[in-house]
Design goal:
By secondary structure, the chain is an alpha+beta fold. It is built from seven helices and 19 strands.
Amino acid sequence: MEPDREWKGRATLVDLLDRVFDKGVIIHADLIISVAGIPLIGVTLRAALAGMETMLAYGMLQDMDVKSRMWEAQHRKNNQVPLMEGEKVALKMFGSYYYSKGIYRAWKSGYFYFTNSRLLLYQQDMAEVVFQTPLEKITAIKIRREKSFTGKNKDIIYLALEGGKIVRLNVLETEEFIQKLRDLQEKIGAALDELPAEKLDERSNNFLVDGERICYQGRMWHLRPKSGIMIETWKPGHLYLTNKRLCWWYEFEGKILFQVPINRITGAIQERRNLSVVLTDKKVLDVIYYNNGSKMVASFSGKETEQWQEALSKMIAKESSQTEDEELETCPQCGGKAPVKELLEQGCKSCGWLSPRLKKPELSQKLLPMTKI
């Protein structure tokens, strides 16, 4: 085939794929990988790449094509949703379920089936029940408008199950889906409660303490400090600002790797910085705080650094206004500021430091049994 110079500078990926699938490509390659002049590995490649119509026109893969079509036809023919004895389908609707196991997370699509006893998501192509739960184990529900990876807004249905598990669903007709769920719940004598907003995040259920609530959250990269042989590394995770602290959740290990109380944060600065050779001119948020009397900086990067800076500034201002009428003092151990009366009578809530006057009574009590009368 002669090169077409008219396409120079104007060919797109779609044009390239169209040519490849239409005409096909034959690859013949012989490679030898050497180290210090010594041949170590030999590679011989013989490959043909083309659309199936082109392959079949040249007499290639014909037997495999016939077997694949026969298997697919038989598979689809017998592929019916597995129902239990006495179970009847009340509603069938296309949707997706957020599957999460270990480090693998993805939306799995299929058809949701409401029966008289359970809710399930069935993938017909794989003949697999991806998700199922008895209706009586659904305890609460919440609908939240969220932006998908395509940039479009969609309704996400959060269902709370017995045991505290939270699942996320997305369906074509949200109102019809929820109404059917409520009708079926009513028939079995159950009722749906409103799921609290702070329960929508599965991660936060692992680390929130009593009285702690999330004020702002989002995906953020965090610059992890040097540890052992590991150099400073940017890692992806989830940043949370609560009414008590700022903390960063590392998804891969499933735990909090950074946290600092609000009263030890002094400010947040935003700038643009090169994260690596490839990731250049990215937004970075530096959070300044005190730890054991030393000034520290924690760096985060993401799309919402401006919003984070604003949220942190408001939280710092709120923390300051609550104690502005009280005389403040710096904790001699962590450097955090707290009311003088609180430090002297209760100690530092951030690091656990106790005033010597609080330690003396403890010492006296220990010596009392040894004192002769």
